[in-house]
Amino acid sequence: MSTNISKYFYLISKLKQNPNKVFTAYDQEIQKALNLETKQIGRMFETLEQEFEDIVKHKIVKKKAYSYIHKINLLKSSLDYQGEISAIIQTIKDYDEDIVDILQNHTTSSYDIYQTIDQPLKSLKQLESLQIFKHLKKAIIKKHIVDIKLQDQTVLYDVCILKFIYTDSNWFVAVLDTQENIKLYPASQIIELGKHNKNQTISLTKIKKYINKLKNIQNSKTNLNERTKTARLKALPNIAMFFGKNSKKFFQTQKFVRKQSDGSIVLTIDYTQEEEVLQFIQKWIPNLLIQSPLQLRQTQDKHINKYIANQTYESG
């Protein structure tokens, strides 16, 4: 997470801890803590004053001063940042544990409700626009056992919704079923939540291991109920620059193996089912080759042959 966001939260914490005190950009303690000049701190204060109605500006002679007037609603604004939500929440904890309690008034915490695999998080409004959103969110917070009805009329009985997951440019819900399997369903395909008994819930302690499993999701095709396999891939020289040792990873399990004499890069990616990694490989055809396992390569060959056959049929 960027240092700038950390500095903003330092100012928020400073204001919140001193509700009866006004601060200016000339405050030496703040200047020392942030290692910034007066003008830079002033701009940060102005940004916070514009973003939070709870921070007010005062005019003291020619100086602009700022103070905290009541509880700060950080949830909505924190979701507007480009950083990972969980990292933002952790930053809040680092500076002021009590601010997390403020978030509890709105939600368990954004980290407990939302998880993002893709960045940036720009489609929260898309999720909130769903008629079912508030009911899904409540079920996540309360850990209710509910029935879920999908657009195709399928009903999932007695399930627990663990989190909203943002991946592959879409919102999903992670659902724990009666067989203790975790599956992802597009949030937009849920049309109804059925009965729930207020006394029938799953404690966070009991399902902690399942929530921790969600950290292993790489995309919407990840199957957390399957054992992982490892794909060994070879990126040819013309795309090798995207798979170097210090290049940004496309998968959290992606590992650099070595650079070959011809400039190719050998790498590995763990996966739970073939489509989890094949949809990525297909984007790089013909320059990303599958070295192993053989079964994955054979499945890829079938996809390619089917495409060629369909293309030939269209041309005919």
Task: Write a structural description.
This protein is α+β, with helices and mostly antiparallel strands and 316 residues long. It has three domains: 102 residues, Arc Repressor Mutant, subunit A; 106 residues, Roll (SH3 type barrels), CATH 2.30.30; 87 residues, Alpha-Beta Plaits. Helices cover 37% and strands 24% of the residues. The chain is built from twelve helices and 13 strands. The strands form three sheets. Strands 4, 5, 6, 7, 8 and 9 form a six-stranded mixed beta sheet that branches. A four-stranded antiparallel beta sheet has the order 11-12-10-13. A three-stranded antiparallel beta sheet has the order 1-3-2, covered by helices on one side. α1 crosses α5. It is extended, with a radius of gyration of 25 Å.
